[in-house]
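Final report, closing paragraph on structural work. Over the funding period we assembled a curated collection of sequence-structure pairs, and we close with a single example.
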Amino acid sequence: MHTLKHWTQVNHLKKFKVVITSWPEDCITLPDSISIYKIPSGSNVKSGDDAFKDIYAFLKSQLDDIKMKAGWIAKTLDYLVPRAAGIFIWATTAVNFLESDPKSQFAMLEKGNGKGITNGHLLFVMGALIL
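Its predicted structure, as stored:
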Protein backbone atom coordinates (compact mmCIF):
# COMPACT_ATOMS: atom_id res chain seq x y z
CA MET A 1 0.00 0.00 0.00
CA HIS A 2 2.92 2.32 0.66
CA THR A 3 4.14 1.85 -2.91
CA LEU A 4 0.68 2.63 -4.32
CA LYS A 5 0.46 5.77 -2.24
CA HIS A 6 3.92 6.82 -3.47
CA TRP A 7 2.84 6.32 -7.10
CA THR A 8 -0.02 8.77 -6.66
CA GLN A 9 2.40 11.43 -5.42
CA VAL A 10 5.01 11.26 -8.19
CA ASN A 11 4.03 13.30 -11.26
CA HIS A 12 5.55 11.10 -13.97
CA LEU A 13 3.89 8.01 -12.45
CA LYS A 14 0.39 9.51 -12.27
CA LYS A 15 -0.23 8.72 -15.94
CA PHE A 16 0.01 4.98 -15.29
CA LYS A 17 -2.93 2.82 -14.34
CA VAL A 18 -2.41 -0.10 -12.02
CA VAL A 19 -4.87 -2.95 -12.14
CA ILE A 20 -5.24 -5.02 -9.00
CA THR A 21 -7.60 -7.92 -8.73
CA SER A 22 -8.82 -9.25 -5.44
CA TRP A 23 -11.76 -10.76 -3.66
CA PRO A 24 -13.63 -8.12 -1.69
CA GLU A 25 -11.76 -7.78 1.60
CA ASP A 26 -12.76 -5.34 4.30
CA CYS A 27 -9.26 -5.37 5.77
CA ILE A 28 -7.74 -3.84 2.59
CA THR A 29 -7.85 -0.06 2.74
CA LEU A 30 -6.45 2.23 0.10
CA PRO A 31 -5.36 5.84 0.46
CA ASP A 32 -7.96 8.44 -0.56
CA SER A 33 -5.62 9.61 -3.32
CA ILE A 34 -6.20 6.36 -5.25
CA SER A 35 -9.20 6.20 -7.58
CA ILE A 36 -10.96 2.87 -7.60
CA TYR A 37 -12.93 1.47 -10.51
CA LYS A 38 -14.64 -1.80 -9.69
CA ILE A 39 -15.17 -4.28 -12.49
CA PRO A 40 -17.99 -6.68 -11.68
CA SER A 41 -17.61 -10.40 -12.13
CA GLY A 42 -19.53 -13.50 -11.22
CA SER A 43 -23.05 -12.96 -9.99
CA ASN A 44 -22.42 -9.19 -9.83
CA VAL A 45 -22.44 -8.90 -13.64
CA LYS A 46 -25.73 -7.45 -14.87
CA SER A 47 -26.99 -7.20 -18.45
CA GLY A 48 -26.15 -3.49 -18.80
CA ASP A 49 -22.57 -3.82 -17.49
CA ASP A 50 -19.56 -3.41 -19.76
CA ALA A 51 -18.41 -6.93 -18.86
CA PHE A 52 -21.74 -8.36 -20.05
CA LYS A 53 -21.65 -6.30 -23.27
CA ASP A 54 -18.01 -7.27 -23.95
CA ILE A 55 -18.70 -10.99 -23.49
CA TYR A 56 -21.79 -10.66 -25.72
CA ALA A 57 -19.79 -8.93 -28.48
CA PHE A 58 -16.96 -11.46 -28.20
CA LEU A 59 -19.25 -14.49 -28.34
CA LYS A 60 -21.33 -13.02 -31.18
CA SER A 61 -18.18 -12.49 -33.23
CA GLN A 62 -16.91 -16.00 -32.48
CA LEU A 63 -20.25 -17.63 -33.29
CA ASP A 64 -20.40 -15.69 -36.57
CA ASP A 65 -16.89 -16.95 -37.37
CA ILE A 66 -17.87 -20.59 -36.85
CA LYS A 67 -20.82 -20.03 -39.22
CA MET A 68 -23.55 -20.72 -36.67
CA LYS A 69 -27.00 -19.90 -38.08
CA ALA A 70 -28.52 -16.57 -37.00
CA GLY A 71 -31.43 -18.14 -35.09
CA TRP A 72 -29.05 -20.37 -33.18
CA ILE A 73 -26.69 -17.47 -32.45
CA ALA A 74 -29.42 -15.53 -30.66
CA LYS A 75 -30.45 -18.56 -28.60
CA THR A 76 -26.83 -19.45 -27.83
CA LEU A 77 -26.00 -15.90 -26.75
CA ASP A 78 -29.05 -15.79 -24.48
CA TYR A 79 -27.83 -18.99 -22.86
CA LEU A 80 -24.05 -18.46 -22.70
CA VAL A 81 -23.55 -14.75 -21.95
CA PRO A 82 -25.13 -14.77 -18.49
CA ARG A 83 -23.29 -17.98 -17.61
CA ALA A 84 -19.93 -16.48 -18.55
CA ALA A 85 -20.42 -13.97 -15.71
CA GLY A 86 -17.86 -11.58 -17.20
CA ILE A 87 -15.13 -14.23 -17.40
CA PHE A 88 -13.54 -14.33 -20.86
CA ILE A 89 -11.76 -17.65 -20.40
CA TRP A 90 -15.16 -19.25 -19.73
CA ALA A 91 -16.60 -17.68 -22.89
CA THR A 92 -13.54 -18.69 -24.93
CA THR A 93 -13.64 -22.29 -23.73
CA ALA A 94 -17.38 -22.54 -24.34
CA VAL A 95 -17.13 -21.24 -27.92
CA ASN A 96 -14.16 -23.56 -28.58
CA PHE A 97 -16.34 -26.44 -27.41
CA LEU A 98 -19.11 -25.39 -29.81
CA GLU A 99 -16.77 -25.01 -32.78
CA SER A 100 -16.66 -28.64 -33.96
CA ASP A 101 -20.44 -29.12 -34.20
CA PRO A 102 -22.26 -26.03 -32.91
CA LYS A 103 -25.81 -27.36 -33.00
CA SER A 104 -25.24 -30.68 -31.24
CA GLN A 105 -22.63 -29.29 -28.83
CA PHE A 106 -25.01 -26.49 -27.82
CA ALA A 107 -27.81 -29.02 -27.34
CA MET A 108 -25.50 -30.92 -25.00
CA LEU A 109 -24.75 -27.77 -23.01
CA GLU A 110 -28.39 -26.78 -22.89
CA LYS A 111 -29.58 -30.20 -21.72
CA GLY A 112 -26.81 -30.46 -19.15
CA ASN A 113 -26.23 -34.12 -19.99
CA GLY A 114 -22.57 -34.03 -19.08
CA LYS A 115 -21.22 -34.59 -15.61
CA GLY A 116 -19.13 -31.43 -15.99
CA ILE A 117 -22.15 -29.17 -16.07
CA THR A 118 -23.34 -28.11 -12.65
CA ASN A 119 -25.61 -25.21 -11.84
CA GLY A 120 -25.29 -23.92 -15.40
CA HIS A 121 -21.49 -23.71 -15.28
CA LEU A 122 -18.90 -25.63 -17.23
CA LEU A 123 -16.07 -27.13 -15.22
CA PHE A 124 -12.51 -26.68 -16.42
CA VAL A 125 -9.53 -28.78 -15.45
CA MET A 126 -6.10 -27.70 -16.61
CA GLY A 127 -7.57 -25.77 -19.53
CA ALA A 128 -9.81 -28.60 -20.75
CA LEU A 129 -13.56 -28.51 -20.95
CA ILE A 130 -15.05 -31.49 -19.16
CA LEU A 131 -18.46 -32.84 -20.08
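The first helix runs from residue 2 to 7. Residues 46-130 form one domain. We thank the funder for supporting this effort.
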